[in-house]
Amino acid sequence: MTEENKDKKIEDSTLREFSENPFDVDSRRPEDVVRLFYIHDVPIIPVISKRGVLIGILRKESVISELSDIERVEKLKIDEFITRLAVKMNFDDLLQYGKIREFVVINIFGEVQGTWSRLQLFASCDSGKISSHDEVKKQQEDQLLEWMIYHILEHIPRALYALNENGKTVFYNSLFEEIYEEKLKSEVDLSHAEKLFTDPSINELFSSFNEDELFFYNTELDVFYEKIPLMNNGRRVGFLIFCEKNAPQSRELRIPGVDLRDKSLTEMLEELERFFIVTTLKECRSLDKSAEKLKITRQSLNSKIKKYNIDLEKT
């Protein structure tokens, strides 16, 4: 084999690797569910949502019976197959399985999510907290979103963090992890990370005259970032956040916390003046020292504080 052919083979292999969808439901088949019954030696398998809410219960005999219709099963994706067969069962229905101490639980894509004790299963059925059709649909959308994010993360060498529409973490890559650990001196805490980009007190608009280049600045992580919506069928399903340690390079004026778009020259100067006054007050913690640094009188500083409605208690 020539060197050229070797290189081409390696390139083709790499492309195939990245073109595979690790969340593709077509890669798992209904017969995989049957194997779970035999591997774990159970007659029923609870199906749960991402939130741990019971969607329904698969019966071994029902799954095997359904698989006998090969032509129909081959047309069904695994999530359709599972949601079709997952039935609601009440406490009385489950009593016959009372001798089983532990049940393997799966999601609608046939992925094992852990185990439930019989007490957990009985309590879940008895509580009436059964997942709705909307929640199943939402889980399918989340799975698609995860694949979209995964594909992007593998190809873009930037610090990335992804949230779903509810503000919950979907993904983050190693570059984001490095920034987080370097700045906060700890491993990524998901609950904390989710608040990082939703708390307005630590996220400032990093202005630009160009509306297509809108950045934000996170004061806690000390990073600049773009927040890009992810769409599915015309509906927003999450956000992708691109982080940069340094301010984006541009010939245009960008000041953290100052929106200069569609402003007149006078308005821009006032916005900038207010920004520098607030910044100086925070730094100096004294009206006299602030006035001295700004090279204006204290009386003039007081006048501007009143003009721009600056709250001294918050500076």
Written account of the structure:
The chain is α+β, with helices and mostly antiparallel strands. The chain folds into 3 domains: 107 residues, CBS-domain (Roll); 89 residues, 2-Layer Sandwich (Beta-Lactamase); 50 residues. It contains 13 helices and 10 strands. It has a 6-stranded antiparallel beta sheet with strand order 6-5-10-9-8-7, with helices on both faces. Strands 1-2 form a two-stranded antiparallel sheet. Helix 11 crosses helix 12 and helix 12 crosses helix 13.
Number of strands: 10
Write down the overall mean pLDDT: 76
The tally of structural domains comes to 3
Proportion of β residues? 15-25%
Query: Going across the major beta sheet, what is the strand order?
Result: 6-5-10-9-8-7
Helical residue percent?
A: 40-55%
Summarize the main sheet: 6 strands, antiparallel
Q: What form results from the Cα inertia axes?
A: elongated
Straight-line distance between termini: 70 Å
Cα Rg: 28 Å
Oligomer: single chain
Please write the CATH class name of the largest domain: Alpha Beta
Count of helical stretches = 13
H and E order:
HHEEHHHHEEHHEEHHEEEEHHH
In the predicted model, the low-confidence regions spanning at least 5 consecutive residues are 6-25
CATH architecture annotation name of the largest domain: Roll
CATH domain topology of the largest domain: CBS-domain
What are the SSEs and their pairings?
Blueprint: H1 3-19, H2 30-40, E1 44-48, E2 54-59, H3 60-67, H4 70-74, H5 78-85, H6 91-94, E3 102-106, E4 112-117, H7 118-127, H8 133-153, E5 159-164, E6 169-172, H9 174-184, H10 190-196, E7 203-206, E8 215-218, E9 223-232, E10 235-244, H11 265-284, H12 287-294, H13 298-307
Antiparallel strand pairs: 1-2, 3-4, 5-6, 5-10, 7-8, 8-9, 9-10
